[in-house]
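Weekly modeling sync, notes
Attendees: S.R. (lead), two postdocs, one rotation student

Agenda item 3: backlog of single-chain predictions. S.R. asked that every request posted to the team notebook include the full sequence so nobody has to chase files. The rotation student volunteered to paste the first one in as an example of the format we agreed on. Action items at the bottom.

Example entry:
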Amino acid sequence: MLEIKNLHAKVGDKEILKGVNLTIGDGEIHALMGTNGAGKSTLSNVIVGNPAYEVTEGSITFNGQNLLTMNTEERAHAGIFMSFQAPIEIPGVSMTNFMRAAVNARREAQGKEPLKSTEFLKIMREKRKLVEIDQKLMNRSVNEGFSGGERKRNEIFQMAMLEPTFCILDETDSGLDVDALRIVAEGFNKLRTDKTSAIVITHYQRLLDYICPDFVHVLIDGRIVKTGTAELAQQIEEQGFDWLKEEEA
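Predicted structure, as returned to the notebook:
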């Protein structure tokens, strides 16, 4: 599904990614761990096409397409979704109107007719139940007055509505209590199929107890330095990252 080769990227004059190689197949969940500043969020922003990040070398192929030639909107319509670490508020735009516009924009890009109001509201009710998000939040502006947990649930709700084939969860567990973490993770798991894949970015083992990854990668100083199974995440939980830095040295 996604193939990254020798990816180098910078922000301003600072090089962040220094040769990332990663291949993700259909239905695979890949966890990405690493110290602060290692390049985890930079990699996710490059994949979704954030214009603040400049690719200086390498390639990204998504389902046979050259991702780097596509703008952010085209990547979203192709099936890429990112759940943000700190979701922003959009004052004056209700959740219902926001989601209807987003869903119908993707349908238009796929050559489909827009959903009628009754059909859209039915789908929204069904998807809302996946992450136990209250109906009253749908009438508020996007994320306005939402708690941290509600914002993260809302991100998974949006993912459910848009039905992407490739998702990036950028520290979705950040700031969540145990109950909210479970609800968010269970909602994500219900959306998994053998045709959908994901990168899960996290510092901690606890999210991976719910979302069981097929592979775990460790990113240090802009490069993936170690790849393993879920056992690698457990080892990092117990020992930290210093032993990996020593191996690199």
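Discussion: group reviewed the output briefly. The mean pLDDT is 89.
Action items: rotation student to repeat for the remaining queue; S.R. to check formatting next week.
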